[in-house]
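Cross-posted from the bioinformatics board.
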Amino acid sequence: MGKKYSEEHKVAYYECDVTGQMTQPAMLAVAIEISEAQSAALGRDSAFVQSLGVTWIITNYQITYNRLPKALEKITVSTMAMEYNKFFCYRNFWLTDELGNELVKIEAVFALMSLETRKMAAVAEEIIAPYGSEKVKKIRRYPKLTKVEGDSYQPYRVRFYDIDNNHHVNNAVYFTWIFDVLGYDFLASHTPKSTAIRFEKEVEYGNQVESHYQIVTREDGAIETRHEIRCGDVVSCEANIVWEAN
Amino acid sequence: MGKKYSEEHKVAYYECDVTGQMTQPAMLAVAIEISEAQSAALGRDSAFVQSLGVTWIITNYQITYNRLPKALEKITVSTMAMEYNKFFCYRNFWLTDELGNELVKIEAVFALMSLETRKMAAVAEEIIAPYGSEKVKKIRRYPKLTKVEGDSYQPYRVRFYDIDNNHHVNNAVYFTWIFDVLGYDFLASHTPKSTAIRFEKEVEYGNQVESHYQIVTREDGAIETRHEIRCGDVVSCEANIVWEAN
């Protein structure tokens, strides 16, 4: 395990939904901000990484929620590079309350993409060394995502403010499409317990995407929603979310 | 003039657009958060206000920009209730840099709306007294907004995350629709110098709105964009923005 980096964060009203709880896109945005702050502190900011001809991409998140942060709550957001192999870097994030209880845990898989070929590049020691994480041989396997059946969806257009400083559609934006499509009644009456999401193909400014979804009650009684973000015939993102009724 | 309330704010990457500057919706969100913090500190939070059968609405903003806050910049956000008359409360916000230079000034007009009749209610002493602002007779007049000509627009649907804790479409969301419709090329190559916006009729969750706009070069050489948010036949919001080419 590598160096831990933490910052305190006061949850703003505008980071919360009608339930007064922090939204998933806001949690992701704050988490990514913290990891950028750590990278900058270690002399590995995005300008440095890009000077080597590569850029970070995120391929997966596994998120578990004990309790969602509430408006005006003071939380601590921490991150740590856990380990890495030839192509993937495993980084965790924790949102904890004032007593140190874990509220939300985010396990993220990062990879490096060549700016020239847009293909995945091997993890360079020069980039990763300062984080102090361990090199491992093993590639982690995550549970397979269950596909969406049926044809329920809403269209979303990629907006100007969806594009971040690095000219990419910010990861948090996919969560907006995935959550929003479930609608007010569902979202106001259910709380997420876990999310598994995989990013496959980037969408771009001006693209019109379709947020496909299916709401199922599994055999074990849990409520699961299944998601695909499609851009034309291409699946750009898939997710499964497990929910609890409020 | 009343009591001033200030908080420091570090501008996050996710509050910025591709130019690395703070977005208008983010500036508004931070400003409103500060005024809610002041209200809570004075024992006049939204629960108190609503217990009197009314709620705050914002009818106008006049915003002037000297320079937009940048990613990771430490700014101070301040607010002060300036004065009020029978129906309107005038409140200013300032975003200042670390040296105290004014970056952005927001003049806002607040009013109280009856929760029962949805009509404007007179400003109650019980609500306004703690802010220490002066009662005046005069009702401020703002320059008339120039209407949109032509029929350029994009549709936007009100999303779940557009609804705030008070179950209203957050004011900052209108700015998203107004700015986004101008498109990447315009937004990446122009900086706002002033915005005048008037809110007329609330839109609701699930509504589909049209963001109408017109880009004009005025006789004095300034670039001005004119905006109307329409919901069906109803104009819910109008704005004029003056820009400078980068």
